[in-house]
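How it folds:
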Amino acid sequence: MQIVNDIKPVTYLKNKAADVLKHINETHRPMIITQNGEAKAVIQDPKSYEDMKNTITILKLLSFAEEDIKNGNLHNEDDVFSSIEALLEK
């Protein structure tokens, strides 16, 4: 990834908004917008944003699972499937 090419000043965004949107939707790379030389915003296409949010959700679930394992909050396979079958029979 060549992030240097994806850093633009806010004036670039103001003058070429349509080009920016086309670029991020074609490349699926985020664009960093600067103001006075400082990063102020990141623009991203909707699909990449959704994928990122889904990835973060999965990582959070894995983190919770790791915490359960550390704390010994475990259930054996037979108990889990018995509980599921009982719920389905209701």
In short: The mean pLDDT is 94. The helical segments are 10-15, 17-27, 46-70, 77-89. The CA atoms of residues 58 and 81 lie 22 Å apart.
